[in-house]
Write a structure and sequence with these properties.
The structure holds two protein chains of two kinds. Chain A is mainly beta. Chain A contains two helices and ten strands; from the N terminus they run ββββββααββββ. The chains are: A mainly beta, B alpha+beta. Chain A: Keywords: Oxidoreductase.
């Protein structure tokens, strides 16, 4: 960004500790249409620089491509002002999940389809203590990709989710996020 | 426990270091540094490695973003004073403004979410144990879609200041949290809006984490008497400008 854009941006501020009654919504992590046979689960734990789980992080997921980008992620009831949940049919491509007391999150979605040849989910991380959100990506497999190709192997591995070997978990992938220190996740900036 | 005097000294040192970077030819820093130790919770929660730049990739998924529509908001979501059977206590206000991109163009039909403490400085959240009263007629959550001119408006009550445990005698100036979507996921913004003339500004490490004076001023709403409604509410104006590239920018070659 130039130093003095015509309209300089509004600065970021931390999401703080009290967003929990405002931003998460029921079904925020259930992005896949109800009962869709291709649905996958991406889940993991957010860790801080001491390795401790982060119980007050908020993760947003976005996947573009054909068939995404419909409204209705957080349908509201005109009767009582509450949340109605998604309509079960449309795929909005947008998910929002708060970590639980163990720092764990889970997203149920469809496998991303764009861009070719190696699709990914885009992730935006918010947390108390984090001044400005962080972007990262979840790749479901390693492969040919400009970003992955620019990273050394250990860092590259932080962006690739691991298929779960536990047979009780259907089509599940593990993706942990480390905000700082050993195994620190690769975070991105866009120009 | 760390004293306010120590935190104030640390904040002054961070501002001094920024002024030296500027004098040495560094760029204006519009956003806070993620490594801002006066806000103690940031210490273990920011990456040590530099961010990896993704530049000019027209295929990047992040250049598009989620879509929201009429189903995602109700008519009452923008009026935080009408969500219960009675009127909340406090000074009734409206906050309105425009959502713009870095070129000053309106950002249309996008979602703005807000949340805030009540007039006594208490959040409707179990983890807020500040001994100030909850207000049964105020939750403090709202949302609105921007109009075709990028405009938005909320009716609410002015939130109170409240104490927190960053350091001894730490108080947050009154603020409203904003969560904003642009046309692209890269334009996502979560921030806080403050009220003009608050005496707590110089003591607050969250506001002061924005070390650039002019950038910090952009977090403070303006009192606009034209926006006040006679015998009803006081009017504040606050425009929001998003940064980050979008698909439109890439197509236009920026």
């Amino acid at each position: 960004m130039p130093d003095t854009p015509a309209f300089p941006p509004t600065p970021s501020q931390t999401v703080g500790p009290f967003y929990g009654y405002a931003l998460p919504f029921p079904g925020g992590g259930d992005v896949a249409p109800a009962g869709h046979p291709d649905a996958i689960t991406v889940h993991g734990v957010v860790h801080d620089g001491a390795g401790a789980p982060v119980p007050d992080a908020l993760l947003e997921f976005w996947q573009g491509g054909p068939g995404t980008g419909l409204p209705g992620s957080m349908r509201r009831s005109p009767v009582n002002g509450g949340f109605l949940g998604r309509n079960g049919v449309d795929f909005t491509g947008f998910g929002r999940v708060a970590t639980d007391a163990d720092g764990h999150y889970a997203l149920r979605t469809l496998p991303p389809r764009t861009p070719a040849p190696l699709p990914y989910l885009s992730v935006c991380v918010f947390a108390r203590g984090l001044m400005h959100h962080l972007y990262t990506r979840v790749y479901l497999a390693d492969g040919e990709d400009a970003l992955l190709g620019s990273l050394e192997p250990a860092r590259r591995a932080t962006l690739v989710a691991a298929p779960e070997e536990n047979p009780a978990r259907h089509r599940a992938y593990r993706f942990d996020i480390r905000l700082q220190g050993e195994g620190e996740t690769v975070f991105l900036e866009f120009h | 426990m760390t004293t306010q005097r120590e935190i104030t000294a640390e904040m002054g040192a961070a501002r001094g270091a920024y002024e030296k970077r500027l004098a040495d030819g560094g760029g204006v820093e519009h956003h806070p540094s993620r490594a801002y130790a006066p806000y103690r919770s940031s210490v273990l929660r920011h990456p040590h490695r530099p961010l990896v730049a993704v530049e000019g990739d027209p295929e990047a998924v992040e250049l598009s973003g989620p879509v929201f529509g009429a189903t995602d908001v109700t008519a009452l979501d923008c009026d935080l004073t009408r969500q219960h059977t009675g009127e909340p206590l406090g000074e009734r206000i409206t906050v309105s403004g425009r959502l713009l991109d870095g070129r000053g163009r309106p950002v249309r039909r996008q979602l703005i979410e807000v949340w805030q403490a009540n007039a006594s400085g208490r959040y409707a959240h179990q983890r807020d144990d500040h001994p100030a009263p909850l207000d049964p007629n105020f939750t403090g959550v709202g949302r609105v879609l921007t109009g075709d001119d990028g405009g938005y408006a909320f009716t609410t009550v002015k939130p109170g200041a409240y104490p927190w445990r960053n350091h001894d005698n730490a108080w947050r100036p009154a603020h409203i949290h904003f969560s904003v979507f642009g046309e692209a996921f890269t334009q996502r913004l979560v921030t806080q809006m403050y009220f003009p003339g608050d005496p707590l500004f110089p003591y607050d490490p969250i506001l002061q984490s924005v070390t650039d004076e002019r950038a910090r001023q952009r977090l403070v709403a303006v009192y606009d008497h034209e926006l006040s409604a006679p015998e009803f509410s006081l009017g504040y104006r606050w425009d929001i400008v998003l940064d980050g590239p979008s698909a439109t920018w890439i197509e236009e070659g920026r």
